[in-house]
Predict the structure.
Amino acid sequence: MKNLLVLAILVFGFFALINNSGFAHRAELTKDTAILPFKYAGLLTKQPDEKIQIPVRSVGARQIADTWHAQRGTDRLHQGQDIFAPRGTPVYSATEGYVFRLGENSLGGNTVSVLGAGGRVYYYAHLDKHAADLAAGKFVTPETIIGYVGSTGNAQGTPPHLHFGVYTMSGAINPLTLF
Ligand SMILES: [Zn+2]
């Protein structure tokens, strides 16, 4: 029980950290459903996934142009990969995990954040819309559709694509290395 409490505090601290790291817009927080961190604590002790599913199933890893750490604007590096597909293409969860945020913000547009094994956070952005039955706290697997490819947020006016980010406790990592 004591260990669980420590883990819960760690999860809280981690969420506070990533909320300040720039991938999540602060305004997004007010719209979130708060969930008890206990539900997630067990995931932290698991090994992070070595391989994950490409969230857009019709796209192969070699079709993804590597834009990891490409310059974005004057002060930002691209913290993920863009996976292009027609608007409305289903986006599946890359892993098992719990949805901990459905977001809507000016940068990512409609977003979904999933907490996976090892405390990793998988971030899906520019969605046309979320899957209708998705909610914070829901358990997802690579069989779960979490949303549909779009161009919301700062991707408006660009070809529809999924922005996919993977965040560890120590920062973003290149999703392409996991496919
Ligand atoms: Zn992107």
User: Anything to note?
Assistant: The chain has three helices and twelve strands. The longest strand covers residues 97-105.
